Amino acid sequence: MARDQVGIPPDVYAYLLRWGVDEPPVLARLREETDSHPRRQMQIGPEQGQLLRLLVELLGAKRCLEIGTFTGYSSLSVALALPPGGTIVCCDVSEEFTSVARRYWAEAGVADKVDLRLAPAIDTLDALLADGAAGTFDLAFIDADKGSYPSYWDRCVRLVRQGGMICVDNVLWSGAVADPSDQSADTNAIRALNERVRGDDRVTAVTLPIADGMTLARVR
């Protein structure tokens, strides 16, 4: 699971997971397998998966978009909540990581709802826009390379319909965004994204202290 839980003591977080999350067994198995992965910190937490499933239901979402799939916890969360005929387009560059996701999509019986595109996400997003997909997605989830966050944001605002939702993970970056001495490229990219969202009059947004910080933005 995600290792950073901003501002939440371990005992409170354990309580949150016990009473605030109803994690399907297939998701729990995927989370536990990924927990032994050397890059396990890239996996979202179960409370984030629960939030994504809730958003799918609230939006009545049928068409979703994910930027950054890794081993599949977020995409599986979304796919499990999608109605029959619903789809999620997943953008990733790793055949190795997404091979794990494929196994669990198949086990959960949702493989037919997943459209995995192995290519740089910018290329996939630009291709979607070129194909006339602007305003056709109900929900987008951004959780990939941090340096490209501002570029992903600009494209997702165009791809998500009015009233749809854009979710962005890691926007607090273990608190580094609030540390002026941290001028790393990733930290500055997340700062740039946060500033862009704050000034973007195309959306109504809120940043939540969930996991490593998660921004929810409704397209106006």
Terminal Cα separation, in Å? 32 Å
Largest sheet: 7 strands, mixed
The average pLDDT is 96
Helix content: 40-55%
How many β strands by DSSP? 7
Radius of gyration based on Cα positions: 16 Å
Which spans of ≥5 residues are poorly predicted at pLDDT below 50?
none
Which overall shape is indicated by the principal axes computed on the Cα atoms? Answer: globular
Care to describe what's here?
With 220 residues, this protein is α/β, with parallel strands linked by helices. 42% of the residues lie in helices and 20% in strands. It contains eight helices and seven strands. The chain has helices at 10-20, 25-34, 46-59, 73-81, 95-108, 121-130, 149-159, 185-198; strands at residues 63-67, 87-92, 114-118, 137-142, 160-169, 203-208, 214-219. It has a seven-stranded mixed β-sheet with strand order 3-2-1-4-5-7-6, with helices on both faces. A hairpin with a 5-residue loop joins strand 6 (203-208) and strand 7 (214-219). Helix 3 (46-59) packs parallel to helix 4, helix 4 (73-81) packs parallel to helix 5 (95-108) and helix 6 (121-130) packs parallel to helix 7. It is globular and about 45 Å long. It starts with 9 loop residues before the first helix and ends with a strand.
